[in-house]
Amino acid sequence: MKKLFALCLVFSLLLVGCRRTNDIHVSTNKTTVKKAKRKTATKKKTTTKKSASTKKSTKKKTIKKKTVVKKSTNANYYICIDAGHQAKGNNSLEPVGPGSSTKKPKVSSGTSGVATKKSEAKLNLEVALKLQKELVKRGYKVLMIRTTQNVDISNAQRAIKANNAKVDATIRLHADGSTNRNMHGFSILQPGYNNRYMNKQIITKSRQLSACVNKAFASATNAKNNGLSTRNDMTGFNWSKVPVTLVEMGFMSNPSEDRLLSTESYQNKMVQGIANGLDNYFKKV
C-alpha cells in the first residue's frame, strides 16, 4: 500500500513538471512571436520612412527650376535705318522743311567709288542691312526705309515715314566725296540748335545721339574722326520729329578708303560702332 502511494506521488510530480515545462515553452514561444512582430513593425516603419524620404528626394529632383529670362532693355526701342540715296536719283523739287519756300531735289544720285566704281547708294544699303541684323540681334525693333535699290523715296518722305512709325531714333547712312582725293575719315552730321523746322527737344536729343555715335564709331573703326558737323539745310533733318543723325562713313573719292569701305571686316566694324553708339545713347536719355 505504501509503495502504491509513493508511486502515485512520483507520477503526480512528473505531471506538474511537464506542465511547467510546456508553460515555459508556450511563454517562450509567445515572447518570440512578440519580438518577431516588433521587428517586422520596425522594419515596416523604417521602409516607410525610407520610401517617404525617397519620394521627397525624387520630387525635389523632378522639380525644375524656373528660368527667368531677362528682357533686353533695347526691346523698348524702335530704330529707323535710312540707307541714303537709291538706284536712280529724283531731281523733282520738294520743300527743305515744313512750310518752306526753299526747295531741293527730292533725292540725289550720290557719289561713287573711284576704285571700286560702286555707287554710294549700293554701299549705304550694304551697311544698312548689316546694321539691321546687328540691331535685331541686340533686341531693337528696326524700321528699314529701303531694303532694295529700286525705290523712289524722297528725303522728306523718309523722315515722315520714321515720324509716322514713332521711332526712337533715325540713323541715316551716307558716304562722302571730294575733289581732293587725299581727304579721308568719317564725320557725323547733326542739326543745329537754331534749326527753325525742328522741335528744340528733338534737336537736343539728335545732338546727344550724334555725339554717342561719333565716339563709338571712332573707337570701333580707328578711322580718322573729322568730328561733328552742324547742318540746317538738310531735308532729312528738317522734316524729322524724332532724334536723327547722319553718318558719313568715309570718302569714296579716296582710293584706299573706297576699297576699305567695301570690305566685309570694315563694314562690320562700322556697324559695331553705330550699334554701340545707340546703346550708349539710350543709357543716357
Lay out the secondary structure.
Elements: H1 2-62, E1 78-83, E2 90-95, E3 103-107, H2 120-137, E4 141-144, H3 155-165, E5 169-176, E6 186-190, H4 200-221, E7 225-230, H5 235-238, E8 244-251, H6 255-261, H7 264-284
Parallel strand pairs: 1-4, 1-5, 5-8, 6-7
Antiparallel strand pairs: 2-3, 6-8
Characterize the structure shown.
With 285 residues, the chain is of the alpha/beta class. 51% of the residues lie in helices and 17% in strands. It has 7 helices and 8 strands. The strands form 2 sheets. Strands 4-1-5-8-6-7 form a 6-stranded mixed sheet, sandwiched between helices. Strands 2-3 form a two-stranded antiparallel ribbon. β6, α4 and β7 form a beta-alpha-beta unit. α2 crosses α7 and α4 crosses α7. The longest helix has 61 residues. The radius of gyration is 44 Å and the shape is globular. The termini are far apart.
Summarize the structure.
By secondary structure, the protein is an alpha/beta fold.
Which regions are unreliable across 5 or more consecutive residues at pLDDT < 50? Answer: 13-37, 44-60
Strand tally = 8
pLDDT averaged residue by residue? 85
Cα radius of gyration in angstroms:
44 Å
Which percent range describes the beta-strand content? 15-25%
Could you describe the largest sheet, including whether it forms a barrel? 6 strands, mixed
Helix content: 40-55%
How many angstroms does the end-to-end distance come to? 132 Å
Strand sequence of the main sheet, in spatial order? Answer: 4-1-5-8-6-7
Structural class: alpha/beta
- Helix and strand run: HEEEHEHEEHEHEHH
**What characteristic shape results from the CA principal axes?**
globular
Our count of helices gives 7
